[in-house]
Amino acid sequence: MKKLLLSTILIVAFSISTFAQTTLKGAENYSITLPQNWQRTLGANALASAQWEHNTEEIYGYVMFEHVDEIELAELKTDIESNAEYALNDFNELAQYKLLNSKKFKTTSGFETTQREFSYYDEENDIKFHMLINIFRSESFLYKMINFGTDETFKKGKKDIDFIINNIKLP
């Protein structure tokens, strides 16, 4: 009986080590509060986990996130300042790109963020765009929130955009 028990234990131990698996960590819950006249939408960015738009003005926003382990795997820094700079790299080669403001602050809901505000000119459509990028970090994830519109519409919705940024809830 002891030999049978020992054999069973060895077989189980061997099979566990032979079929070892890697655990990948998934998403965590977060929430965005939208002010009146804003709604959830699709189409602003195919990789976004949440997207929104103003009901009457052409102002949009979305959130993308990535696990800190994935960022480290790419040998990038995981602090919010560095990631704000990485995010700007996607845009700073656009025509007439202009960085307007950079700041770091705590939202009214208590989360630290770094924000980059910039504008750029789209020659093809003859439109000047205005964008805000906010980077947030939880223990396990980095979040990139982008809000944008034309210069004119963005100014009209700036108060609401500030509300959205200040009311994100992260774990």
UniProtKB/TrEMBL annotation:
Protein name: PsbP C-terminal domain-containing protein
Superkingdom in the source lineage: Bacteria
Signal sequence, renumbered to the chain: 1-20
Key words, A-Z: Signal
